[in-house]
Amino acid sequence: MQTSTARLLAAAMLMLGMANTYGLGQSSRRCAPAETRRARSEISKVSEWAGFYQSFESFKQCDTGQVSVEFSYALSRLLARRWLALDTLLDFTGNDDAFKRFILRHLDENIPEEEAQVIITNARQHCPVNGGWLCKAIVDY
Predict the structure, then answer these.
(1) DSSP secondary structure string, the chain?
(2) Which of 1, 5, 11, 82 meets the CB 3.0–4.6 Å disulfide criterion with 78?
(3) What residues have CB less than 8 Å from 30, skipping those under 6 apart?
């Protein structure tokens, strides 16, 4: 694993630990088994930032286990393939601090290496003006 990717993963794990320490990890509402199956299915089909935010709103209480992994995969897929539409993600995070913390928490070890390299390159070379917090989280660690 390259140094940049390793730093990205270490930062994400640190942020995850901080989020859980301060009670920022999950909603207090539990996720029923049928809801977990629906969440995994819907999150795996997300192809745009608005859909990702909708999945967050619908299934944030399910953000554990395989649902959490699906959220991470979907985030990495969108960061790698929909970077040019990143302003949409930034609009959502600008109005929702819980969603911003959620994004940072899902920059984790579930991001495939190939996508991680694309994401890091985009963060270094094509960071939007209002996306400094995200690019910094991606690149600095």
Answers:
(1) --HHHHHHHHHHHHHHHHHHHTT-SS-SS---HHHHHHHHHHHHT--SHHHHHHHHHHHGGG-SHHHHHHHHHHHHHHHHH-GGGHHHHHHHHHT-HHHHHHHHHTSSTTS-HHHHHHHHHHHHH---GGGHHHHHHHH--
(2) 82
(3) 61
pLDDT in tens, 79-104: 999 999 999 999 999 999 999 999 99
The structure tokens listed for 120 are: 């890091």
Sorted by sequence, the CB contacts under 8 Å of residue 20 that are 6+ apart come out as none
Q: Domain coordinates of the chain in residue numbers?
A: 3-23+31-139
pTM of this prediction? 0.79
